[in-house]
Amino acid sequence: MDHRWKIRASLGSVLMFGALPVITVAGIGTAVASGQAAGATVTCVPAGTTGLTASKVVNAPATLSGTTITAAGCDLGIYVAPTTSTVTITNVTVTGANDHGIFVQDASHVTIATSTVTGNGLAPTKGISENKAIELVGTSESTVHHNTVTGNLADGGIGVADDGTIDPGAPAAGAAHTAKTDTVSTNTINGNYGGCGIVYAAYDAGPTTGVSGGTISGNTVTGAPGQFGPHGPVISGVVVAADAPGAAVSGVTVTGNTITGAAIPGVVVHSNAPGDAVSGVTVSKNTLSGDDWLSTDGPPEPAGVVVAASPIPPPAGPTLSGTTVTGNTISGEFDGIWVAGAPTTVKSPNTIRTSPGGNATYVVPRAGSGYWVTAADGGIFTYGNAAFYGSMGGSHLNAPIVGMAPTLDQGGYWLAASDGGVFSFGDAAYYGSMGGTHLNAPIVGIAPTPVSPAPPGGTSAPAGKGYWLVARDGGIFTFGDAHFYGSMGGTAINAPIVGMAATPDGHGYWEVASDGGVFTFGDAAFYGSMGGSHINAPIVGMAATPDGKGYWLVGADGAVFTFGDAGYFGSLGANPPKAKIVGIMAAPDGRGYWVTTANGGVYAYGSAGSMGSANGSSLNAQVVGAAALGVTGTA
Q1: Buried b (16+ CB within 10 A) or exposed e, 179-190
Q2: Cα distances (angstroms) measured from residue 457 to each of 230, 460, 461
Q3: Which of 63, 78, 80, 410 is the most exposed place for a label (fewest CB within 10 A)?
Q4: How many structural domains comprise the chain?
Q5: What is the DSSP secondary structure assignment for residue 369, as one 8-state letter?
């Protein structure tokens, strides 16, 4: 499973298998396989041009029934070769393979039924994207039903994919073939580590590849919350995805499945690479409960069904269209159905019971289409598509609010107070604070972690589940998945720190001082500063460009200073407003910004759209910060 819903790290072994018996196998291409003789040496033979070996190769019409194939030392248990048609595998037990228990390549009319595939994936081969216990690539009009798939260690349960320049089931490239009208039904899938329960995925671009049609129905897919094996957790779940540039998936139906305790959302429909196209997927009559417990990608809180196109800018952006979600029963999730970047039809009756504060259906708003403004008393003002999730306005505060930060899907936000207190709303989880702790200097800002690939060296990656607090003396405090990369705390600085910004991958950050000095940590690069230069008013805030290769600084008089690839789109410096400037927000496309004032004014420049402000309104407290709807990290 090489799409972005793959869990990136293994945290130890829970399920292990002892030594497997050494046995012989039936010959290549026999019509009917007999039982294997215990105690004999296993002969591993080449599996076509895949670069793998197999215990059993089928390259002609055949029926395999009532046998046990132990593939100790072989990469595959059973390999069904290209151009083969009319193969039936029933009442077979397959175990001990390094990779797939059963691998079908570029074949048709294959039936795998009432068999047990267990204890495979013992020594996964590098370069296999979909290393499932049962994997069909480039195979059409085939059925996998009434099987038990359990205790496999490499990459989950059952996979269906196309074949071509990328053969997702093998390290060597294959011939271009569509996976068309394949059915995976009424299987029991549990205890498989490292990958999803069922995956329909396209990896190759072109008219003769992709995944077309097909049904995933009546399967029971069960996760194991909190359990991790040698190659990751029991991820479970059902995924329909386009996973490589230009790949296409269409017309897949996911219906009548029971999916419980998956590490990811119960059902994921995902288009995630440049030029990908996923269309016409139906998700109906499934029962989903307690899924997305690991919640490392996509929504910041658990969701039952996710329909998401990754936020790649046009014209290269993927498309995801024609998804219908109807008649599902979803419970034990914060969001029942979570949609990002994809027009989706949600039809009643879906029966959805969410966690407190959750949404039956949540649609991520378009980046740049709104913003929040927060005041020192904790009041929140919303503009455009920014939603109100609550505030501290009217509540007793031990210290004034100094800043806010939205969650990665814009479904919530955190407020930070000068004493280090943190208040969470919507889908913003609370990860801790400095409230009640002695501070050498008051807090002046907060920044959320983004979703990021893991860095070299095994350090865990941020996943939008944490935040940094920065103090006036430059001290940095980390919570959740925010990592510490250094700070100015304890170091003599010429002027107090007034704000911070995180790099796009979350592996670094900048601090900015009121004299315009900029300090870099982690992978944050230095592009210049106003430190040591004459400025007419102190700096009050900074914002990074979307690619992290530049930043803006804004002064209390509205002057804007640009560094790196940050463009200049105008400022209030030549005509300062009566109210002091308090901050700057970057437009999601990097071609503009908003400047905010203490009386609630919001001034838009470049591509930043004006959606209103509190300027001229009577406020109970001065505005201290703002945040714009940003690009959602879907995965």
Answers
A1: bbbbbbbbbebb
A2: 18, 9, 11
A3: 63
A4: 2
A5: S
594 found inside a domain: yes
Largest alpha-carbon pair distance within the chain? 90
Residues shown for the chain: 635
Which residue, of 200, 221, 236, is where some domain finishes?
236
pTM listed for this prediction: 0.90
DSSP annotation string for 262-303? -SS-SEEEEE-STT-EEE--EEES-EEES--SS--SSSSS-E
Q: How high is the pLDDT of residue 573? A: 82
- Whole-angstrom distance, CA of residue 97 vs CA of residue 258: 28
CATH number at residue 510: 2.130.10.10
Q: CA torsion angle for 228, 232, 235, 236 (degrees, to 10)?
A: -90
Q: Write phi, then psi, for 157 (nearest 5 degrees).
A: -100, -85
Q: Average pLDDT for consecutive 10-residue bins of the chain (635 residues)?
A: 37 24 29 40 92 96 96 97 97 98 98 98 95 98 98 96 96 96 98 96 95 98 90 93 95 98 96 94 97 86 94 84 97 96 90 94 95 97 97 96 96 98 97 97 96 64 90 98 96 97 96 98 98 96 97 97 98 88 96 97 96 88 96 68
Neighbour count for residue 569 (Cβ, 10 Å)? 17
Is 538 within a domain? yes
**CA–CA dist 130, 138 (Å, integer):** 13
What does the alpha-carbon distance between residue 69 and residue 71 come to, in Å, rounded to a whole number? Answer: 6
DSSP assignment of 381-400 equals: EEEETPPP----TTS--SS-
Domain boundary among 236, 271, 294: 236
Query: Is 494 within the bounds of a domain?
Result: yes
Radius of gyration over every alpha carbon of the chain, rounded to an integer in angstroms: 27
Q: Which residues contact 184 (CB under 8 A, 6 or more apart)?
A: 143, 144, 145, 158, 160, 198, 214, 215, 216, 217, 219
HSE-up of residue 393 (Cα within 13 Å, Cβ side): 15
- Contact present, 169 and 137 (Cβ < 8 Å): yes
Q: Which amino acid is at 29?
A: G
Residue 310 in any domain: the answer is: no
- CA nearest neighbour of 133 among 254, 250, 203, 231: 231
Q: Please, are residues 520 and 505 in contact by the beta-carbon 8 Å criterion?
A: no
DSSP string, 160-223: EE-BSSS-TTSSS----B-EES-EEES-EEES--SS-SEEEEE---STT-SEES-EEES-EEE-
